[in-house]
């Protein structure tokens, strides 16, 4: 069995994920990672800036909202991602359509179990189907709308589902139904209602992005192709890494891999998998060590379930209680610290693993460059971690 060392994996990651900042456009960055995490809208912009020295905040906005070459989509693990627009049919078939079915069953179950205020008239499943159709018509009339505007047009969206367990919170149907409809490919998240860091957006009809509707893709082929893309960008890795990233069952993951030319490798003591015919063979040149500031929920550290091979410091300082990673500071493919933006717009860093003078100087330059490119914006990540909080509070 061929052995792949931690050094080999880090070297491939730095090159494939453009951690030296050599990517040209937001689209190139996104393709190099399969997708960008978009739960926190600011992470999309910061992930691009970290990998493309030539891109600006305006360039990212233009890709998302002017060219519409990138689109936010509900996909793996019920998480928002940004994908290249041409990849959405594949993603829809591979993960989003099954996810929509789960979300629909969950909403029906909540209505049946918890009831609602006012009560749903008749069968909850039929009620949801009819409300979806009315929401689509309302959105088509407006062309673009916030959730609040749609609720004004369709008051049934304000139906309240009370809590029936300590772990639950009362909720309006609005968020659950619109999330379900987006996962089903019936509407699209459009422009933000505020600045680029805003977590609120407008909805648009699917026909404004795909006039003839989303093209149909065979689910089995879509799962195979998604697994191949992930292995090309994140392999070699473990079976569990792929299963975690996609949110698939063990059976679905195995079926997808069974259609691919897979080689079993020794990942520095663990069994891993890699493609026998990778799309990008590694170069012979050793990449120069580079400093990179990646945002919270960046797709690189969130690309694997097992992360020990690139963690140079205690993981407890980098992750929140839900397992989400905060801002990370990288040197030569290894996380050695964190960073934060102060309330005054200054980028501050903390290094917990000393990697020498060259690393310290490169990190200082990278922080200064990012501060300049942020143009005074203050970014507070959605995933607040102990280390990031300490840097922010220290600067107050």
Automatic annotation (TrEMBL):
Residues 277-288 have a biased composition (Acidic residues). InterPro entries: AlkZ-like. Residues 141-168, 274-298 are annotated as: Disordered. PANTHER family: LMO0824 PROTEIN (PTHR38479), WINGED HELIX DNA-BINDING DOMAIN-CONTAINING PROTEIN (PTHR38479:SF2). This is Winged helix DNA-binding domain-containing protein. It comes from Petropleomorpha daqingensis.
């Amino acid at each position: 069995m061929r052995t792949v060392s931690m050094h080999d994996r880090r070297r491939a990651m730095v090159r494939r994920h453009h951690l030296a900042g050599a990517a040209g456009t937001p689209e190139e960055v996104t393709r190099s990672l399969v997708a960008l995490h978009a739960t926190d809208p600011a992470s999309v912009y910061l992930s691009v800036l970290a990998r493309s020295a030539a891109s600006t905040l305006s360039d990212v906005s233009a890709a998302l909202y002017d060219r519409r070459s990138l689109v936010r989509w509900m996909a793996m693990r019920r998480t928002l991602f940004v994908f290249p627009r041409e990849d959405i049919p594949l993603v829809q078939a591979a993960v989003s359509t099954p996810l929509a079915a789960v979300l629909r069953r969950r909403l029906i179950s909540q209505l049946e179990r918890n009831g609602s205020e006012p009560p749903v008239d008749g069968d909850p499943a039929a009620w949801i189907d009819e409300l979806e159709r009315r929401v689509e018509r309302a959105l088509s009339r407006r062309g673009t709308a916030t959730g609040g505007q749609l609720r004004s047009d369709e008051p049934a969206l304000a139906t309240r589902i009370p809590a029936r367990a300590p772990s639950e919170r009362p909720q309006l149907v609005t968020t659950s139904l619109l999330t379900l409809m987006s996962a089903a490919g019936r509407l699209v998240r459009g422009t933000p209602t505020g600045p680029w860091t805003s977590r609120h957006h407008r909805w648009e009809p699917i026909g404004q992005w795909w006039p003839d509707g989303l093209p149909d893709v065979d689910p089995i082929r879509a799962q195979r192709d998604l697994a191949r893309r992930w292995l090309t960008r994140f392999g070699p890795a473990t079976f569990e890494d792929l299963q975690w990233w996609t949110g698939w069952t063990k059976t679905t993951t195995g079926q997808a891999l069974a259609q691919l030319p897979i080689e079993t490798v020794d990942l520095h003591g663990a069994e891993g998998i890699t493609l026998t015919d990778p799309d990008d063979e590694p170069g012979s040149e050793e990449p120069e060590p580079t400093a990179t500031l990646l945002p919270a929920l960046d797709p690189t550290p969130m690309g694997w379930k097992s992360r020990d091979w690139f963690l140079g410091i205690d993981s407890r300082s980098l992750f929140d209680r839900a397992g989400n990673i905060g801002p990370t500071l990288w040197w030569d493919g290894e996380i050695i610290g964190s960073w934060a933006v102060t309330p005054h717009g200054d980028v501050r860093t903390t290094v917990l693993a000393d990697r020498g003078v060259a690393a310290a100087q490169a990190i200082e330059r990278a922080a200064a460059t990012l501060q300049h490119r942020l143009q005074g914006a203050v970014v507070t990540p959605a995933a607040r971690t102990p280390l990031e909080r300490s840097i922010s509070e220290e600067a107050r």
